Amino acid sequence: MRIDFHTHFQCLDFVKHLQGRSSFPKSVFRGGSYVVQCAAGLDVPSIPKIIDMEAKLREMDDVKIDISVLSHGLPFGPDVLGGQEADDWAARINDDLARIISEYPGKFVGLGTIGFGDPLRSIAEVDRCIRQLGFRGVQIFSNISGKLLDSAEVMAVLRHIGTLGVPIHLHPAIPLNCVGLDTPGNFLSLGFPYDSSLNVLRLIQAGLFDESPDLRVVVAHVGGVIPYLAGRIETYGAPSALVSEPPRLAHGIDHYLRTLYVDTVCYHVEALECCHKAVGAERMLFATDHPFGRFEIVAGLVDELKCPAADRELIFHGNAERLLNLNKVSVGG
């Protein structure tokens, strides 16, 4: 059994809605298909395997994936629209995902999309996703409508998710600070994992994990830089000659870092081996980021990982089944 925790669909109606905007993101119809212009030079096409689930299923079969956990596949959420429009489109995207799951029983699991136009409505949409639509978690981007994740209105929603016992998949977004990250190659390769890592650390420092001890966060792309800089983060998260007033938390920073999960989206087995040693198999979830990047390479890396067979089974499906409560109910329902 292989469960792909990080894979995407697109709501084509949302893509079409972005046409005619005067600023990024916006979409255009080009060469017979839609393309979302996310930032200068960063174009995300609405290719068949992200909007046509039959095409997606064929590629899942090619790389031996049994179940895909679907989240909306753009490097931003409907929050970019602001206000009621953002919340309306979050609901429409979620309805589209619920339709896909119902049409392909047993193949897909849903992660909800949140608009963040109004905190109360966002909380209500979280509840609808989990309690009515049967989704198993929520996708949250590493910054929301120009705000860091520890802003008050975002934290209110995250606290609520923490009460529901469902995971957050923390997906990178275009960094708020792009000084020096002036090309898509720079912010896709360096900016994305930096922004995710920064905002996870800010959530820890803001006390979210003390307030919501049951919160489960999966940091995309092998945890950004956190697993590899954990020692440095822990060192400078404690009182020292250089840091006289660290955040007041119930535990040391190392405690919170050990609660984080990561997905396995990376492109070199050596990086995955480092992650395995730093994080441990019990907090790693197999993932491909399909259809983006070199997903076919990503899909094969766990097979190359030098680890016990029991670790590999946890990564491929055991952790996802536990985190998403897939053994308690029918998949997707």
CATH class: Alpha Beta
Backbone CA Rg:
19 Å
Number of strands: 11
CATH overall fold name:
TIM Barrel
Q: Helicity range of the residues?
A: 40-55%
Distance between the termini: 19 Å
Order of helices and strands: EHEEEHHEHEHEHEHHEHHHEHEHH
Instruction: Name the CATH architecture.
Output: Alpha-Beta Barrel
Q: Largest sheet at a glance?
A: 8 strands, parallel
Strand adjacency order, main sheet: 1-5-6-7-8-9-10-11
CATH superfamily: Metal-dependent hydrolases
Point out poorly predicted stretches.
Answer: 329-333
Strand percentage, roughly? 15-25%
Shape: globular
What is the helix tally? 14
- Please tell me the total number of domains: 1
Structural class: alpha/beta
Mean pLDDT: 95
Structural commentary:
This protein is of the alpha/beta class and 333 residues long. The protein has one domain: Metal-dependent hydrolases (TIM Barrel). It has 14 helices and eleven strands. It has helices at residues 12-17, 48-51, 53-62, 83-103, 119-132, 152-163, 184-205, 208-211, 220-223, 226-235, 253-257, 269-279, 295-304, 309-323; strands at residues 3-9, 26-30, 33-39, 42-45, 67-72, 108-112, 137-141, 167-171, 216-219, 261-263, 284-285. The strands form two sheets. The chain has an eight-stranded parallel β-sheet with strand order 1-5-6-7-8-9-10-11. Strands 2-3-4 form a three-stranded antiparallel β-sheet. α4 packs parallel to α5 and α5 (119-132) runs parallel beside α6 (152-163).
